[in-house]
């Protein structure tokens, strides 16, 4: 990849961020009167309802830890629940602080699992399988959301387009992943090409370095990744429990958003919250800012407005949810992350 190509990729992400933030700004200007009234009532929210976000987020991480447990068990490793619970918190911190579309989290998880005598390839496979389970289970959650929207008559062409696009993206992405990783030749060719391109990008930033990522070593890891995948693929029925845990993880995270609506004294359409959450999280993958700040809030507010939830309500709720979510999750994630780093250095 040339320096010009790398610039184009960055420029595309920048354009997406600027357009979304501009749309949010326009929405704020148009709704400024209603927003002023809403923020005046910000301190009248039900504090007891806001506290519900703590047990809801605990249940989310509980589902994530059990999902990891099930997937590692399929590859022949039995890992402790609390170790995986803590690793999930660390991953959330890494993915929020280092905006890389989840790539940094995958790399960190591979390093983190070395202390559990897990190879980097196996840890990468388990993490990728977790993402696949989360994506697939979200398709089921989107169907539930569409049902809720249809019941209350909030279905529109825009909502159908958004839901259809998300579902198509999830299906195509999952099929592409299975196609590439299902063949030793394809996975070696694809990821070796990806490693070469990544080395070129790194060389642009650090020209004094040659081959930052060793191609031969990377190819060995890809072969190990394929072997572990074939072990899991022997019996797809074993994935029913991981799929259920992934569904619960998604459900509890959406419920964390809904808890804030309850705190504001509003029981909005649950389907609208599901769809807005999905769009915001997918768009956050291309954000150049930590945690998708700006992109996340803007798109969630826009989608909710399209689904019939007033922007004067959805914007402060979304901002409140984001703040609470970070306050609840990032400090323990930061503590565990640094503890793990110091532990690995000491060993």
Q: How much of the sequence is in beta strands?
A: under 5%
Radius of gyration: 21 Å
Oligomer: single chain
Structural class by SSE content? mainly alpha
Largest sheet: none
What string, H for helix and E for strand, traces the elements in order? HHHHHHHHHHHHHH
Count of runs of 4 or more consecutive helical residues? 14
User: What ranges have pLDDT less than 50 throughout 5 or more consecutive residues?
Assistant: 4-10
Q: Count the E strands.
A: 0
N- and C-termini, Cα separation: 38 Å
Helix content: over 70%
* Average pLDDT rating: 75
Write down the overall geometry: globular
Key phrases:
mainly alpha, 347 residues, single chain, globular
How would you portray this structure in words?
Helix content is 79%, strand content 0%. It has helices spanning 3-30, 32-40, 47-50, 53-74, 81-97, 103-112, 120-151, 157-181, 184-205, 215-233, 240-263, 270-283, 295-306, 311-346. The model is unreliable at 4-10 (pLDDT under 50). With 347 residues, the chain is mainly alpha-helical. It contains 14 helices and no strands. It has a domain at 3-117 and 138-157 and 240-346.
Secondary structure: elements and pairs:
Elements: H1 3-30, H2 32-40, H3 47-50, H4 53-74, H5 81-97, H6 103-112, H7 120-151, H8 157-181, H9 184-205, H10 215-233, H11 240-263, H12 270-283, H13 295-306, H14 311-346
């Amino acid at each position: 990849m040339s320096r010009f190509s790398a610039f184009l990729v960055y420029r595309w992400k920048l354009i997406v961020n600027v357009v979304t933030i501009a749309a949010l700004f326009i929405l704020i200007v148009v709704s400024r009167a209603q927003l002023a009234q809403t923020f005046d009532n910000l301190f009248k929210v039900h504090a007891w309802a806001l506290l519900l976000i703590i047990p809801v987020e605990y249940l989310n991480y509980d589902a994530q830890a059990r999902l990891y447990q099930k997937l590692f068990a399929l590859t022949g490793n039995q890992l402790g629940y609390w170790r995986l619970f803590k690793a999930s918190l660390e991953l959330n911190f890494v993915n929020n602080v280092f905006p890389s579309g989840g790539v940094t989290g995958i790399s960190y998880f591979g390093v983190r699992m070395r202390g559990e005598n897990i190879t980097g390839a196996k840890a990468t496979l388990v993490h990728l399988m977790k993402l696949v389970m989360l994506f697939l289970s979200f398709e089921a959650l989107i169907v539930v959301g569409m049902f809720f929207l249809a019941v209350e008559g909030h279905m529109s062409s825009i909502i159908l387009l958004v839901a259809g696009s998300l579902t198509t993206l999830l299906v195509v992405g999952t099929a592409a992943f299975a196609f590439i990783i299902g063949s030793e030749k394809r996975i070696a060719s694809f990821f070796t090409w990806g490693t070469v391109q990544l080395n070129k990008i790194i060389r642009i930033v650090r020209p004094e370095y040659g081959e930052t990522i060793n191609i031969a070593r990377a190819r060995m890891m890809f072969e190990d990744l394929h072997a572990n995948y074939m072990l899991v693929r022997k019996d797809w029925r074993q994935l029913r429990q991981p799929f259920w845990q992934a569904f619960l993880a998604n459900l509890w995270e959406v419920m964390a958003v809904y808890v804030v609506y309850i705190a504001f004294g509003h029981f909005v359409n649950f389907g609208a919250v599901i769809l807005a959450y999905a769009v915001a999280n997918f768009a956050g993958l291309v954000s150049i800012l930590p945690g998708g700040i700006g992109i996340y809030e803007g798109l969630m507010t826009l989608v909710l407005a399209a689904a019939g939830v007033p922007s004067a309500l959805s914007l402060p709720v979304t901002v409140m949810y984001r703040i609470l979510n970070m306050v609840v999750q990032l400090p323990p994630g930061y503590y565990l992350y640094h503890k793990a780093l110091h532990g690995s250095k000491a060993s």
